[in-house]
C-alpha cells in the first residue's frame, strides 16, 4: 500500500486537519533542515493518540515518533511511512505543604512550563527553562544544564509500548526504573511513546526563581549560538574530556562544509549557517570526529539523533 492509499484511508478515520501529506520536516526541527515526511500526523490529546494508534494497526507502514524536533537531524530525502508528532500539552499542579506535584503531557514545552511554574512560585525547574523542546523529549534524553538534570525532579513517567501495534501496552514507572544516566534513559532502548511525566518540585520566592532563570538565560546567550538554527549540543561530553574544548583545540571553530558550520560561539554546536542540507551537517560531523580522533586520540559521540533517508 503506497502513501496515497494510506493517506486517503487515514483521512476517513482521523480528523483530516491533523494529517498532512509530503510535509517538509524543516518546518518541524530546530535545525530547519530535512526532507518531506510521507504522512505527518499531529496528536493534541490522549484520546486522539489512542484513536490514531488504533487506526495505524491496520496499515503496514513505518512509524516515526516526533517531539518538538529540537535534538534531531532529518536527512534530505525525508521520512518514509507515518510520522507522528506528540503534542500532548496538559498541565495539572497539585500543591501540598512541602512540594508541588506537577503532572504534564509529554508535549508541554519546557520554556512555557518554566513560566507557568514561575507564576505559581514553584522552584527547581529553572535549569530547564532554556532547554529547547518538550518535557517528554527532556525525559527521554535526561536533559540537563547548570548542574541539574531531569533525573533530579522526575517522580514517574507513563508511556505506551508500541513495539507491537497489535498489542499496545501502557506502563507507568518510577524515577529509579527510568535508569537515568548522562543524556540517557531506559526509553532510549525501547520503542515507546512517552505520554505523561510527573515531576516533584519545591516552592520558592518568585523573585529568586526569576533571577536564576534570567542568569541562566544570559549565560546561554553568551556561551551558545542561540540565534542560529541548530539541534543543540551536537556531541556528547566525553568521560574524561570536554568535547567542545578538543574541537576548539583542533582549530575547528568556524570550520564550514556547505551551509553547515562549527559554531564560532561554542565548538560543541554545529549550526545551520546558510541553507545547510542534512548531508552538509553529516559531512561536517564526520570531519570533526575524524579530526579529533587523529589529533587528540579521542572518539567523540553524537548527542543529536539522525533519522530518515
Blueprint of the fold:
Blueprint: H1 3-13, E1 19-24, E2 36-43, H2 46-56, E3 63-66, E4 72-74, E5 79-86, E6 91-95, E7 99-105, H3 110-119, H4 135-140, E8 144-145, E9 148-149, E10 154-161, E11 169-174, E12 192-202, H5 206-223, H6 243-249, E13 256-257, E14 260-262, E15 270-272, H7 278-296, E16 305-307
Parallel strand pairs: 2-5, 3-5, 4-16
Antiparallel strand pairs: 1-2, 6-7, 7-12, 8-9, 10-11, 10-12, 13-14, 14-15
At a glance:
The protein has helices at residues 3-13, 46-56, 110-119, 135-140, 206-223, 243-249, 278-296, and strands at 19-24, 36-43, 63-66, 72-74, 79-86, 91-95, 99-105, 144-145, 148-149, 154-161, 169-174, 192-202, 256-257, 260-262, 270-272, 305-307. The chain is α+β, with helices and mostly antiparallel strands and 309 residues long. It has a five-stranded antiparallel sheet with strand order 6-7-12-10-11.
Amino acid at each position: 500500500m503506497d502513501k496515497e492509499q494510506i493517506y486517503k484511508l487515514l483521512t476517513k478515520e482521523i480528523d483530516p486537519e491533523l494529517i498532512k501529506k509530503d510535509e517538509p520536516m524543516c518546518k518541524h526541527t530546530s535545525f530547519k533542515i530535512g526532507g518531506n515526511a510521507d504522512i505527518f500526523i499531529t496528536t493534541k490529546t490522549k484520546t486522539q493518540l489512542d484513536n490514531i494508534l488504533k487506526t495505524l494497526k491496520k496499515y503496514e507502514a513505518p512509524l516515526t515518533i516526533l517531539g518538538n524536533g529540537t535534538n534531531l537531524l532529518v536527512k534530505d530525502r525525508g521520512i518514509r511511512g507515518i510520522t507522528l508528532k506528540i503534542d500532548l500539552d496538559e498541565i495539572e499542579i497539585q500543591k501540598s505543604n512541602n512540594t508541588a506535584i506537577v503532572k504534564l503531557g509529554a508535549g508541554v514545552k519546557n520554556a512555557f512550563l518554566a513560566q507557568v511554574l514561575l507564576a505559581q512560585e514553584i522552584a527547581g525547574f529553572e535549569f530547564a527553562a532554556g532547554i529547547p523542546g518538550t518535557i517528554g523529549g527532556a525525559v527521554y534524553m535526561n536533559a540537563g544544564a547548570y548542574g541539574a538534570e531531569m533525573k533530579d525532579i522526575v517522580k514517574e513517567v507513563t508511556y505506551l509500548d508500541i513495539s507491537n501495534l497489535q498489542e499496545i501496552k501502557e506502563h507507568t514507572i518510577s524515577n529509579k526504573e527510568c535508569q537515568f544516566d548522562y543524556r540517557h534513559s531506559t526509553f532510549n532502548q525501547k520503542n515507546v511513546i512517552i505520554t505523561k511525566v510527573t515531576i516533584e518540585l519545591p516552592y520558592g520566592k518568585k523573585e529568586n526563581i526569576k533571577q536564576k532563570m534570567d542568569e541562566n538565560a544570559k549565560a546561554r546567550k553568551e556561551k551558545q549560538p542561540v540565534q542560529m538554527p541548530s539541534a543543540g549540543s551536537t556531541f556528547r561530553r566525553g568521560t574524561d574530556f570536554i568535547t567542545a574544548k578538543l574541537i576548539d583545540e583542533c582549530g575547528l571553530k568556524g570550520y564550514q562544509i556547505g551551509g553547515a558550520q562549527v559554531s564560532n560561539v561554542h565548538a560543541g554546536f554545529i549550526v545551520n549557517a546558510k541553507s545547510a542540507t542534512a548531508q552538509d551537517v553529516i559531512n561536517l560531523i564526520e570531519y570533526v570526529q575524524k579530526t579529533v580522533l587523529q589529533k587528540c586520540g579521542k572518539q567523540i559521540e553524537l548527542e543529536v539523533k539522525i533519522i530518515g533517508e
